Amino acid sequence: MRLETAYIALGANLGNARATLEEAVCRIGQFDGVTVTKCSSFYKTAPIDSSGPDYINAVIEVKTVIDERELLRWLLELEKEFGRVRPVGVVNAPRTMDLDLLLYGQKVSSDSFLELPHPRMHQRAFVLVPLLEIAPDVQIVGKGPAKNFLAEVADQGIAKLV
After folding, report:
1. 16-32, pLDDT tens digit by residue?
2. Exposed (0-12), middle (13-18) or buried (19+): which is 104, by Cβ within 10 Å?
3. Which residues are catalytic?
4. What pLDDT is stored for residue 118 in this prediction?
C-alpha cells in the first residue's frame, strides 16, 4: 500500500465547536491506517452562503494508506456520530461538525460521492488560510499553488484564535 498525504478541513458552528473539532482531530488520528501529521491553528469565520453563529475552522494533514473513498466514508460516519444532520433541501445549514476531504495526493475525482480536489476550496478563506499555515507550498491539483488564490478571498473575515 502506498502512503498518501491528504488534507481535511474541519468546521463547526453549533455547540462547543472548538472542543468538538479538537475531539475530531483526535478521533481521525485513531482511524486504522491514518496518522495526523499537522494541525493548523483554529480560526473564527463568519458563515458564507449560510446562516447561524460564526464557525470555528481548521485544517489537518494526514498520512494514510486508506484509499480516498474509504477515508471519506469514515469522515462522514464521524460527522454523524457527532450529530451532523443534513436537512433535505437545505444547503450549508449550521452544523455540529463538517469534515471535508480537500486533497488526497494527486487524485482527481468528480462523481456524486467524491470530488477531488474539493471544488470550492480555492474560494474559501476558512480553507486556504489554515491550509497554507501547515502547507505553504501546497498545490491544488489542476489549479496550481493554493497561495495564488489568497488575494481572491481577502475580503472574507477570518481571525486566528489563541
Report:
1. 999 999 999 999 999 99
2. buried
3. 84, 95, 98, 100
4. 96
What single string gives the DSSP state of each residue in 15-65? SSHHHHHHHHHHHHTTSTTEEEEEEPPPEEE--SS--SSPEEEEEEEEEES
Residue 12 corresponds to which cell in the numbers above?
Answer: 463547526
Q: What residue segments make up the domains of the chain, in order of their start?
A: 4-160
Q: How many CB atoms lie within 10 A of CB 61?
A: 20
Q: What is the pLDDT of residue 82?
A: 81
Amino acid at 7: Y
CATH 3.40.1180.10 is the classification of domain 4-160? no
Could you tell me the pTM of the whole model? 0.93
Task: Characterize the bridge pairing of strands 34-39 and 158-160.
Answer: unpaired
Cα 110 to Cα 53: distance, rounded to the nearest angstrom: 31
CA distance 134 to 7: 10
Q: Tell me: the pLDDT tens digits for 36-87?
A: 999 999 999 988 777 678 999 999 999 999 999 999 999 999 998 887 666 5
Q: Is the Cβ–Cβ distance between 61 and 6 less than 8 Å?
A: yes
Coil, strand or helix at 78: helix
Q: Is 64 in contact with 35 (CB distance < 8 Å)?
A: yes
